[in-house]
Design brief:
Number of domains: 6
Strand content: 15-25%
Strand order of the largest sheet: 2-11-10-3-9
Structural class: alpha+beta
CATH architecture of the largest domain: 2-Layer Sandwich
Distance between the termini: 95 Å
């Protein structure tokens, strides 16, 4: 038995914790502790107060509902209090709830209305003569906040009731919530544009409804479900709760189609299990279900306890949020190079699963939450969704913690981690050399529009990489027929025993026993047994009657065919961020040689039309990584890949290829072409600019603030070396590029065309190639600058856009006639 003194101290601690958490939750929409922890503390308090009734108090949190209304809004006194609900967490507690009602009412049959318990904000809507006049939050149950203006922004809440027969005064209670998909979309845009990210749908709904400016509420994706009534005057409602919900639906209120009428405890528990199984697929968050005695006479007979009705109870699901501690923050590199910060956590049970890691999304999200190693945090897990850190409990932060910053280098390959321009995402720039990106890199390299290695699907790539046989794209050109046939046997086998049986006919008699025993010892339950089997050293004597060899032979032929590549295909196959087929083609046309391209500093890539700063920097980052250069060296070794169409740089490069333009392309703050020309006139080499002082820049004609900005720029991030290297490569380009000769203009020079729909006699690629050969630029979208659109069958929005803008439209016959007229036969 707990002594009075010990109980008094613990009761005081619990009341303080619960009151603080309740005020934050109900008045400031802040979650200091997860719901599960709050419920556990409340149950402990209620048990202590029951065991020591002399220590009970009317102002205890166990007797309170919600929190005090905010002083920012006018107060609304509820004519009928908005009470809370008691909680059940087990089957036994649900059966006790039904038993108590059965003992009190003594009925042969007990019917209940069972409903999902939405995780949102409880509100009350008042209608007079069918017109919405006022809306309020629950507040402390007796007095709430007037949020009428914000509730009017929620489209599903009717301003005027439908139908007829409604009471003169009708107060409808329900839940304002934020649908999951809309919540995720809102946060995605907020992260992208640096806006406020909402912690979870419940906080998002509550915070949106408490905005002083209704325009802010209107921008938030809020919805509403009705679940009951409050004051009713001048009319009557049906005799059961379920019939009342049906009537509210006819009057225009949204009512959940998950509501059911069930019988007895077994019916309630079946409903709980059914909704629990469907929970993760619902479009909104729920944290349990609610059971209400269906008939109103029975409700009145059961009455109320201090803060809850005896005829209703909430049956909670296992908690989806828990408190734990951040032990480390690490960077996880995804298959595409995305660098995602992950919190390593002290293990904690969340929704029945032990959670040790949680995503932090990106560096901006960490900064907004201010998550630090050592922090106590709230972690959320919903269904199969990756657990995430929702918020930091700042009150529990240990002394000496430090803000987190994104590391400069990839933890897997050491390449630079770069931030994508205009986005919150960071990525590893070691595309070819980063093991974390290996499978994605190889799949892209082998794809049809890249190196076109037909037959090398994702399943094969996965196993070859896991077995360590393919560590990079160059290893594709070392694959043998034996390895591929072995791979097919491994992937076709259901388990190690089946693999041993399929291998046996293809092994020489001597030594086959050792191989088969090694296969049989593999752990068939392990996810990587196939990779282990493929890595075993095996000598084969292929029995062609027992295995089909065509796939392996065709794949070896496809690999051999890809050795003889065009420059544009290879550039696209490298998977450089932001470098698609058209950019790869432009690079090949303008620079002509991979050895030249891989040595260029990023500003010189901007000399190619349509390549801007973002793409140029991405190219520069890629070729600056030592691992990528080593991967290229391995790929270009004799006998692997040959580029068949290398040529001198385009003569068009000579135009504007000078130091002044290099300064402009380097995006130095304040440096325009005119200012760059003044600077170069006074200092005609990059080294002279590096050796100069700010006053020399002013003497050359630059404004003082631009001169200071240039000096600061030259001191940072190897910018000086960038200029020196740029000048050196620029001179090399001028030596290599032929003099610009007068070229006859193509019939489509300077004109932009767009292809849409299905062509019968030409593929889209072939049509594009022929138009480009005549000087056209083939774009992917229609604008006022488009000269004409070629529309095949089933043309869609691009054709509509062309008609809207008055752009000329060609059909396939006109295209073919034009091509034939200019020597481009289909």
């Amino acid at each position: 038995m707990t002594s009075d003194a010990t109980a008094r101290q613990r009761i005081s601690e619990l009341r303080q914790q619960l009151s603080t958490a309740s005020r934050a939750y109900h008045e400031r929409d802040e979650l200091l502790i997860p719901d599960a922890e709050y419920d556990a503390l409340m149950r402990e308090l209620e048990a202590l107060e029951a065991a020591h009734p002399q220590l009970d108090s009317v102002d205890s949190p166990s007797h309170q509902v919600g929190g005090r209304p905010s002083s920012r809004f006018a107060e609304v006194v509820h004519a009928v209090p908005m009470l809370s609900l008691g909680n059940a967490f087990s089957e036994e507690e649900v059966r006790d709830f039904v038993r108590r009602i059965d003992e009190r009412l003594g009925r042969a049959q007990l019917l209940f209305s069972a409903e999902p318990k939405l995780d949102g904000l409880a509100i009350s809507l008042r209608y007079e003569d069918g017109v919405f006049v006022q809306g309020a939050t629950r507040g402390d149950g007796s007095t709430g906040e007037d949020v009428s203006a914000n509730l009017r922004q929620i489209r599903v809440i009717p301003d005027r009731l439908d139908g007829e027969g409604w009471p003169a005064v009708l107060e409808v209670r329900g839940e304002v919530y934020m649908p999951r998909a809309d919540f995720e979309k809102y946060n995605e845009q907020a992260r992208l544009h640096g806006g406020k990210v909402l912690a979870n749908p419940r906080n998002g709904a509550a915070g949106s409804l408490r905005q002083l400016d209704p325009k802010v509420s209107a921008q938030r994706p809020l919805s509403f479900y009705a679940y009951g009534t409050g004051e009713v005057n001048g009319g009557e409602l049906p005799a059961t709760h379920s019939a009342t919900l049906a009537q509210l639906d006819r009057w225009g209120f949204p009512v959940s189609d998950l509501c059911r009428v069930v019988e007895g405890a077994d019916g309630l528990l079946d409903y709980y299990r059914d909704i629990g199984a469907r929970r993760d697929g619902l479009p909104f968050d729920i944290d349990g279900v609610v059971y209400k005695l269906d008939d109103r006479d029975g409700q009145q007979a059961m009455g109320f306890v201090a803060r809850a009705p005896r005829w209703a109870i909430a049956h909670k699901f296992p908690a989806q949020e828990q408190t734990t501690t951040v032990e480390a923050i690490e960077i996880q590199i995804g298959r595409t190079g995305a660098a995602t910060p992950v919190a390593r956590l002290q293990p904690v049970q969340v929704a029945g699963v032990t959670v040790t890691n949680a995503t932090l999304h990106n560096a901006d999200q960490i900064a907004r939450l201010d998550v630090r190693v050592g922090d106590a945090v709230i972690v959320r897990r919903a269904g199969d969704v990756i657990p995430e850190v929702v918020s930091v409990i700042a009150e529990r932060r240990p002394e000496g913690t430090q803000p987190w910053t994104m590391p400069a280098a990839c933890p897997v390959c050491g390449a630079e981690i770069v931030r994508e321009e205009g986005a919150a995402a960071w990525r590893c720039s070691g595309e070819l050399s980063c093991p974390a990106q290996r499978k994605e890199t190889i799949a892209h390299f082998a794809s049809r529009r890249a190196m076109d290695i037909d037959g090398l699907g994702d399943r094969y790539i996965e196993t070859l990489v896991d077995a360590g046989i393919v560590r990079g794209v160059a290893d594709l050109y070392r694959l043998s027929r034996d390895q591929l046939l072995h791979l097919k046997l491994v992937l076709d086998a259901a388990d190690p025993s089946a693999l041993a049986a399929s291998l046996k006919p293809h092994l020489p008699a001597e030594g086959s026993g050792a191989v088969l025993n090694a296969v049989l010892r593999l752990d068939g339950d392990a996810a990587n047994w196939r990779a282990q089997a493929l890595a075993l050293p095996v000598a084969f004597e292929w029995n062609t009657k027992k295995i089909a060899t065509r796939w392996a032979d065709n794949l070896i032929a496809a690999i051999d065919a890809s050795r003889d590549a065009t420059l544009e295909r290879l550039l696209f196959a490298l998977g450089i961020e932001h470098v698609g087929e058209s950019t790869a083609k432009a690079l090949a046309q303008w620079f002509g040689d991979l050895e030249l391209i891989r040595q260029l500093p990023w500003p010189l890539f901007k000399r190619v039309p349509d390549i801007g700063g973002e793409v140029a920097r991405s190219l520069g980052h890629f070729f600056e990584q030592e691992g990528n250069q080593q991967a290229l060296d391995a790929l270009l070794k004799v006998g692997r890949v040959r580029i068949r169409d290398s040529h001198l740089p385009s003569a068009k490069l000579r135009d504007g290829l000078d130091l002044a333009q290099l300064l402009v392309e380097a995006e130095i703050p304040g440096i325009t072409r005119l200012r760059a020309e003044k600077l170069v006139a006074a200092m005609p080499s990059a080294q002279q600019i590096l050796d100069a002082e700010p006053e020399h820049f002013v003497a050359a004609g630059l404004p003082e603030d631009t001169a200071r900005g240039l000096a600061q720029w030259l001191e940072g991030d190897n910018h000086g070396q960038l200029l020196l290297k740029g000048e050196e490569r620029m001179r090399e380009l001028l030596q290599l590029a032929p003099e610009l000769a007068a070229q006859p203009a193509g019939p489509l020079d300077g004109r932009t065309a767009v292809l849409t729909g299905t062509l019968v006699r030409l593929t889209r690629d072939a049509a594009k190639a022929r138009l480009e050969a005549l000087g056209a630029k083939v774009a992917g979208s229609v604008s006022k600058k488009t000269a004409f659109v070629v529309a095949g069958s089933e043309a869609g929005s691009k054709l509509d856009k062309a008609v809207e803008l008055g752009v000329e439209v060609w059909d396939e016959e006109r295209l073919l006639a034009f091509l034939a007229e200019h020597g481009q036969q289909p």
